[in-house]
Amino acid sequence: MKWLDAQPELFASVLYAEPGALGLIANIVAALIVAIENICEGPLTGTALVLAGTHLIIIGGILQLIAGLLCFRRNDHLTGTAFVVFSSLWIIVGANFIMTPNFDPEVLRVGVLPGLIGFMAVAVILCLCAVTVNYIMPPVLVALLLTLIFEGVGSFYPWGKKVAAAFEIFIVLSSSYAVIVMTLKGVSQRYLLPGFGNAPFDPLLIRTKAATKKKHEKKKDTKYAEPMGMGYIGNVVPAAVLVFHHLGFFSDFRPAMPMFVFGIFCHILGSFYAFLRHDLFHSVQFVIYFVFWTTRAMIQLFVTLEYPTNDRIVYFGQWGMVGILIILTVVSTCQSKAVFLYNMLFTIMSVLSVEQIPVAVHNYTFGASAAVVAITSLYVAMAHLANSIAEKSIVFLGLEAITAERLTQLFNGYFAKFRDGKTKNDDYTKDDKISYKIVDCVGLVSSALALSCLAPVEATSGTYPLTGTIIAGVFLHLFTARLAFAAGSLAKCYIMVVLALFWSVWTAILFDDSLLSTLRPASIAILCLHTVSMVLSAAFTRVWIPFSIMMELCAISLVVKCFNVNPPWMILVTAVLTAIVAFYGAFAEIVNGVLQEYIVPVGEPILKEVEIEEENQEPPCPLYSSQRTSSLMKVADILDDGGVVGTPTDTVYALGASCKHPESIKRIYHIKGRPPEKPICLCLSNLDQLVESNPVFSPLLWAFMRRCYPGGISCVVPKGPWMQNLGLGDAVQYVGTKESICIRVPDSSVLAYLVSLSGPIALTSANPSGGADSIHHDMVIDSLGHKLDGIICDGESNELVASTVVNCLKIDEGVITYFRIGCTPKERVDQLFEDAKAEMNNKSNSLSVDVPYTKS
């Protein structure tokens, strides 16, 4: 076997080091700019406000947004969400600075205040979640919360600005310390200053009941941070603004419009990262939220700008949104009860916001229902974010309202007869194919919503349809094109770009119908481009064929509209028929994707891709048999040379690196894409090896470890000088945390032999960070083989899950807790602990504390 010459690929989470430092620097600069503005006496000149606003948008907004994206790539749930939230805040503040010279102060004050109240509520949620992360984030977020409060007070009383400036200075100082800590940590790969290593409240120590396994729960197996908390938070500020507007607190919507940048960031990024995580449900859900809030905001903006809106009662485009939300609510029944109830409330709000309700009543129905959704969003967002941080359910969301199996049976009862006997389809289970299905879902949803808005255009002045053509038509199709490109489907990317161009022409017509003659060449070009799309649709599921044919008719109606020769109601008929096909396709793909089965028929592609399998493919790294001593000696040589190998254990496959080479331990983080905050355990061949290092452990801890080792239990114990007696050297800094170390003594002859040859080994599971445990050496080869220096092949693993990790730091107080329940049941570990305590009670008189453990 040949060695690969290429070096193992470095993972972005380590290359990006500490993006939190970048985000905090952006906050420092932004807070300092606003503090100076608050301290200065008298009104600032228009030029100064524009310059300050521009700096806030670029540094506080865009730069912090980049840091948030890097944090999501680093699997940092809270920091990524916080940076996205506050990047939108600084962009909004910068936009307000720029708008100040052009608006009456009273109009600007009442227009901005509702959004600030929404941000205050979001800041409270982030503060509550931050106490589970570290000691620095909570005071920074509390200072941001108080800053928002006093900025709101300062809109009415000048002293409020001075108090806000004081808290902004505190943000500058505390964030500066945090930047120093994180920068040093990024350079040294360990925390040198206090504040970030621990948290005031450790969610890992919370005992929770094991949740019922659901099929969609495997979406946690990913190297990207979970965007669910951010997506639900994105509903808070838009809802707050529209509540105050419809209940009459302010009427001029122009100052409030920048607040919807918050929803755009949270929903679009939430959808995109859900797509990267192959999470169809949340990817589609957040797109729907985005379209709803943005279109409602644009309608109110057009009303303020005095666009004609006296024909609102005949505009039925909003019912398309209601239909999509009903589909979403139905499939939400197999999610948590909280998500199902939330989407049901969102659907009710959508019904209460339709244009057929008289304006006087509409303001109260929509305003009151939006207030309920805003409050509910806070809880659902906090629950998802807290559970993501803890990596388990610590805030109640509930199990499914209806199990996925039951919902599958209900749909099968009706659609089974239309499937021609076909029941198996891996398009909804394989990650690479789920990406294509998400593209299909988002594309069909955006088309359905845009066509619903276009259908009544001949009966209206065009103001209301304009919101749908801009948001669902142009923007969302371009977003879908980006998803298609990321999924590797250039054909769908082409189709989505053509559809975006189609809706761009309609948007121009609705803005100014005098452009009809100017847009004639563009309409003909789109008709020709879409004809190519019809040909490409043969390579997709068959639902795309009638959809592309009907869209071709819509393109023809656009051409005849530009030439002003279209028959009456042609646009209505073509748009409605195409929307029906799009709604069916969206319904089918959402149901199939969420339930991960082929239930609602969409048809097989006419043109199918033929996969050519390569024969005799050379393995990506050297493979060694676990049955040959010579092979294990070669693996030991690899470890001694600073290599990283995949090895079987008594549970699942693991990655190992010799503690003689700290750089090889750092490579494990690169290879797995493991966040630096997550520690790596120390593997010993037997308990005697630990005894010889002479650690100062209590007799109870020794008695407990004697019962646990060797086997599928790992004990977390305090670090100490004894680790140097094991010959770890500088590797002490790279295994475990600053205060503790997880000791692993597996019941594996292969691993015990390697440790006896090479010394203590740093060990962690052999899977990409967040991914499923590797239960066969083939899984290690497929997922990480191209990054490793060798893999020991031993067939199927002994267990399906990793070891149980027990926290023994407070064992002398008679307490053990669990970081992870693995292959060894909790009841079994508790019994071992009780046996150890019983032994200590029975032999307390004869046990020598000077000799905690004696070799037999």
Provide a concise account of the structure shown:
The protein has 856 residues and is mainly α. The chain has helices at residues 12-15, 19-39, 46-73, 77-99, 105-130, 137-154, 158-188, 228-233, 236-246, 260-276, 280-304, 318-332, 337-351, 359-390, 404-415, 431-454, 463-487, 490-511, 520-536, 544-562, 570-595, 629-640, 662-672, 687-691, 699-708, 722-725, 749-758, 777-784, 826-842, and strands at 623-625, 644-647, 654-658, 681-683, 713-718, 740-744, 761-765, 790-793, 804-807, 817-820.
How would you describe what is shown here?
It comes from Patella caerulea. It is a single chain. Helix 2 runs parallel beside helix 4, helix 11 packs parallel to helix 16 (431-454) and helix 12 packs antiparallel against helix 16 (431-454). The protein has 856 residues and is mostly helical. It has helices at residues 12-15, 19-39, 46-73, 77-99, 105-130, 137-154, 158-188, 228-233, 236-246, 260-276, 280-304, 318-332, 337-351, 359-390, 404-415, 431-454, 463-487, 490-511, 520-536, 544-562, 570-595, 629-640, 662-672, 687-691, 699-708, 722-725, 749-758, 777-784, 826-842, and strands spanning 623-625, 644-647, 654-658, 681-683, 713-718, 740-744, 761-765, 790-793, 804-807, 817-820. Among the domains are: 403-604, no CATH class; 623-842, Alpha-Beta Complex (DHBP synthase), CATH 3.90.870.10. Mean pLDDT is 86; it is low at 1-16, 210-222 and 847-856.
